[in-house]
Fold this sequence. Notes:
alpha+beta, DNA Polymerase III, Chain A, domain 2, nine-stranded antiparallel beta sheet, single chain, 3 domains, eight-stranded antiparallel beta sheet, 370 residues
Amino acid sequence: MKFSCEKALLQAAISTTSRAVSPKSSIPALEGILLEAGNELRLTGYNLETGIRTVVPADIQEEGTLVLGARLFGDIIRKLPDDIVTFRADHYMVNITCGMSEFNILGTDPEEFPELPTVEYQNTITLSQAKLRAMIGQTLFAVSDNESRPIHTGSLFEADDKGLTIVSVDGYRLALRHEAIDKKEGAESFSFVVPGAALSEVEKICSDVDEPAQIIQGARHVMFKVGSTMLVSRRLEGEFLAYRQAIPRNNTIHVVGDTRALLSSIDRVSLIISDKLKSPLRCTFDHNLLKISTKTAIGDAYDECPLEGDGGGLEIGFNNKYLMDALKAAPADKVRLELTTGVSPCVILPTEGEENFLYMVLPVRLKAGE
């Protein structure tokens, strides 16, 4: 096996595939990256849950396959000078040269590296990388980390004639994003759940460009194709929350607020809340005004934020982090908050146009003395 390629390109490929490498595994090969030099140079990382494979432009003189420890290989390439890297492998002995630097390290048998699962093409969605990245980034925060309901540790992808909807829910809040898609092949409407850990990697692989990204749904796996990189993940099986029924839509109170002003007010009041000193935000929705206060063992804080609309003096408690996460993710300068009572959820929506996002935050019970 012998090839040469640019250091920067190889480093980027190692950094991408390393994200799917097991830090510690009972199968030593899984702690490595599989290199395959054939018609093209392919690098693969796989931790039995998620696999990432990427193609690197390289000048291949001799074909071959080999597994190299991801950490050491990544460190070596990162610290090499910016030049052409020449890679030679004789059986498992690897020689890496670049400029005046030279390394000889030991690789392992590629036969021990498990094959990536094959994804049968059942349904395909095509949309721009920028759109997919934004949709994942603006819903991923609400994915549950509670393993007792494994289905909610991922996001639901729903595709139909209107476009693609991504929903995450963790029992305290819900995040939903909807966008039109460029192309859809397969069934008229279909849905699947992708683990949050895999989506976090997809978000990193996608760039803010209009180049297309493809999502391919198979029977048990799902594949994301982004440029020269593909990510394969198992699908989560189970009954996802019937989210449409869970969102209250006949709310009696509608107020409009500036997203950044709301965030600033909540952020200021949250300064006296910490992991050790937890306390809900007491929010009072008055006429054209939101009053926010909280009290902890350190002291208390109060702030006001202008709103458009009358809240009728409704008093409601929220977890400061959950409310801030939803407002940070909302891709709009102004948002509409819909409420009904002090024990019903708050729904955050766009003020006008199509409802391309929706966030729901459940309230926290307020104690009389707080």
